[in-house]
Amino acid sequence: MRNDRRLRRLVVDENTAYLWNFRQTKGADGVWRDTVTLHRDGDRTRFVFRAGGAGSGRYVSEGDIWFQGCAVDGRGSGINLREPAVVRALLDEATRRGLLRPGDRELDGWDLFYAVEAAVDLKRAAAATPATPPGSPPGP
User: Fold this and answer.
1) How far apart (Å, rounded) are the C-alpha atoms in residues 70 and 49?
2) Which of 10, 30, 120, 123 has its Cα between 20 and 30 A from that of 129?
3) Consecutive H or E run containing 67
4) pLDDT digits (tens, 9 = 90+) for 85-133
């Protein structure tokens, strides 16, 4: 099992790099939160995805280790918050919207969900994968 507290490095360009991690916590209110935290130059930005109530269309893994880091909307769209490409898309979208400012900030990740999901569209990536060469053995 991976260590979620470990900081990973996300390089944006030759002058800009962030450290980031993923955490899954249950708040005092009993609501599960999946959080991606970016660290840079003493500033910390948290993208928080809170589990919604029944019928809200906002689902996180709620302590389940098998789906840890998955945020889905109940309509077939989802992102894996433990993937570097998703973290980069969160960073890019927050930068585009002017949300990254000095100091510690907490942002509602659901506000960025659809932009990130479109940037890291796994269905589109899978459709662009070349077909299996003839004679290949069947997959798993």
Assistant:
1) 10
2) 10
3) none
4) 999 999 999 999 999 989 999 999 999 999 999 998 755 555 555 565 6
Q: Which of 75, 71, 67 is nearest to 90 (CA)?
A: 71
Spatial separation of the C-alpha atoms in residues 59 and 76, rounded to whole Å: 11
Beta strand spans in the chain (E): 8-13, 16-26, 32-40, 43-50, 70-72, 78-80, 104-108
Rounded CA-CA distance 37/106 in Å is 9
For residue 134, the SS3 value is coil
Q: Which residues contact 86 (CB under 8 A, 6 or more apart)?
A: 36, 79, 80, 116, 120
Single-letter amino acid code for the residue at 55 = G
Q: What are phi and psi of 91, to 5 degrees?
A: -60, -50
Residues facing 38 on adjacent strands: 20, 45
